[in-house]
Amino acid sequence: MQNPEKVQNAASVITSALSGMPGQGGRPPRPRVGVVCGTGLGGLAEALADARPLPYSQVPGFPQSTVASHEGRFLFGRIGTVDVVLQQGRCHLYEGYAPEDVCMGVRVMATLGVEVLIITNAAGALNPRWDAGDLMLLTDHVNFTGRSPLTGPNHDAWGPRFPDMSAPYDAALGRIAMEEAARLGVRLERGVYAGVPGPQMETPAETRMYRHLGADAVGMSTVLEVIAARHMGLRVLGISCLTNKNLPDCMKEAPLEEVIRVAGEAGDKLTRLVAAVVERV
Ligand code: HPA
Question: Which positions make up the signal peptide (predicted)?
Fold first, then answer.
């Protein structure tokens, strides 16, 4: 379990930094929506009005991502009339971080007052009907990491010892996302995300197994952050950018450059979709 004092301290430092950055109307930003930007969603930064960055290096105890394709900062601003905070860059289990480090961003955003979490990622498509470059709305997930951010003593002020996971992804937010995708002409599939520890990609036998066990896409993030978010009562919307096809009988290599390239190409529609959803939450 996360150290509550560490999270509170990080949130306090951010709050005082924000009080020195008044935005529209002379008041500091009060984000109600937080967006975790996975690979490819960097473009959302440009959709932000009144954007004010805060590097993780200025937040005490905040873990830095060692992945070159991930920036390391919060970005506070507005989309339409909605105050948002972007988490640009996250850390992962495969970097050697503990579950509580992986979830610190979510804990801090919730402590700052965020009520809705939009979480995005790059993932491999296990569903054979889908293509690289498609987007997938997460309807559910399977936590294959073998880890949980809730292991250890529970901090009751955050949430219950045994948080419910019968509806990890918010159905109403999912409906808004489907409607906005249709309006924008963006293809948005719906499916189950398998969260794995990585960093190695899957063998053919592993992709066959994940598919048989009910997953439509596989990736190396998100599930722990969603557990922490649900523990704190946040409403969650999850969207994967499917960067490669992951089919057991015709496996192809999916080098990082390819994942980043496809995520970058699909990033524009993901950005437009997320921006449209934020305006309606
Ligand atoms: N597997 C795991 N993680 C990923 C993949 C994949 O195929 N593509 C992007 N992230």
Answer: none
